[in-house]
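Morning!

As promised:
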Amino acid sequence: MLNIKNLHVKLEEEDKQILKGVNLFLEPGKVHAIMGPNGSGKSTLSYVLSGKGGYEVTDGSAQLEGVDILDMEAEERAAAGLFLAFQYPVEIPGVGNMTFLRTAVNAQRKLRGEEEMSAGEFLKVVRAKAKDLKIDADMLKRPVNVGFSGGEKKRNEILQMAMLEPKMCILDETDSGLDVDAMKLVAQGVNALRDDKRTFLVITHYQRLLDHIKPDVVHIMANGRIIKTGGPELALEVENNGYADLLEEVA
Amino acid sequence: MAVSSQKTSSTRALTDSELTDSSGAWAREARMTASKRAQAAGLPQRRDEYWKYTRPDAFVQADVTLQASLRTSLGLFDRRTTVSVGFGDGKIQAAALPSAVHCTLESLASASVLDLHWARDVYGRLEAAGQKPVERSLAAVNTAIAREGLLLNVTGAVEAPIHIHATSSGHSDAIIHHVIKVAEGAAVTLIETGQYGARSNIVLEVDVADGGRFHHIRVQDGNERHMLTHIFGKIGAEATFKSFTLTSGVELTRNECVLQLLGDNASVSVAGACLGDRDFHHDDTVFITHDAVNCESRQVFKKVLRNGAVGVFQGKILVKAGAQRTDGYQISQSLLLDDDSQFLAKPELEIYADDVACSHGSTSGAIDEQALFYLRSRGVPEAKAVDLLTLSFVAEAIEEIEDEDLAQDILDHLTETLSAR
């Protein structure tokens, strides 16, 4: 699904190398988790993959289903099936959540040369999916993320994911700022989207989220590289011992 | 209105006989005194502090010849039930104006030949009161020479909005003077769309008695080249006044709004959203005087500027001694879509009472990159994402419109305008 080779990235504005040769191979239908200490480059990886400005790729490549995505605009990557659930979803006053969702769904369809979803059909689909995430009619009507609690914002991210039906989902610290119940609800939403084709890359600091979204593969990232890859037990090891041992091991 | 006569009228004082030609007693008096006011004040000069950011030349020069082709908001608000008043090249079109329950509609042209008329208590009076402390001589010129306008006497709650729609063949000056009188406890909504002329000087005087409610929505999206408007409002106790303007066409606009809050517990709001491109120069000048206890006033202006467009905001809140518990809010913000565009703001507070809450803010900013990325990461193309963020930016001004249906119409119109450009 997603094949990242020797990815080197620096900040555009200053001479600071963030990613120093990331290699990742994500198969269809699998859930990969990336854990790592602060400043290891996890969020940068998610931004670079989804097309945020301000970064410069100095070496390496990233392919989504065999197609290079690093030269694409953010919206083209989205239309190609990439989705990033933001750590801090952005508030957009004055733009209704529903308007935003419908604009996004139809913009992607248009970019893919598909027919737009009618207002009626859209409403039916969005209501059903919102219900599963316990998102009420009021939240759909309100401006995007404005006045939403931390949990509501993250549920709203998952709703967007459910509506856009991406192939490759990146979740950037989706557990941050969530209490246990909110995290369970979000995890349920993610699990409902798991199937044998859709791939997930779950970025997190804590093993906790991985109790609810069970990963197939766990990677540890430090200092701009993947330093260790293993099964779910690797996350437990980090939870018990911290990153210090792993970092020493590599050094 | 012939172009030639307007050319002269804007550069020299008309003779008494020209001014009062076919005027009835009340109109003759109002026109004569306005003419004296205008002559005493003189025309605005470029060096005037009050015209620091907008050159008055275009409004006063005689030799401005303008040719504008029509492109207006025809059809906007058509799906709402309204009482429609048409202006064509500065003249009210229907021989007989429509009627509505709880209000009378008359044309200035026909009412001004009478010797007595209710409008005498308002026409030119509110404009005269608005000449202090800053002179607005072009409004006095308007009072002196305007021959057409809508006179609206509101005696109860008028259900359907009164909709003035103006059209113009494209190269005329229009000098229009509307008068609205809202009686105690009465209510009306006035909508103004279309273009009066290639160059227009519009005055709207609104007298809202105690407990009255006046709502005003204006769309300036024709390609009128120069437009100068003045609203003079006198607001009674417990009364409400709300005016919202959307400007997307028009090369040069100056919208002045002068309000006097004279009764306790009154509430006013003046708001505007504009989309400016290239030669666009848009000036909102507001002066709100609090002269009563426990009144609220709001000024909310949002300007979206690109390709060298210029936005101006001069807003003042004057709180007189004794106007305790005044709640004044003023915000003016611009969204600059490039480095060539500029926003000039002069927010002012002058307060002589001690128990007052007044806040003001003014900002200029670019598109929020994080929000832009958020939208694009969902598949929304950049241009469409900028449009959505533009709508988001002006939303606070549109929220000042009380009627949700009309606010939705404005939003839809704005969305269309954005996607068309």
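Residues 235 and 241 of chain A are 10 Å apart (CA to CA).

Hope this helps with the figure draft.
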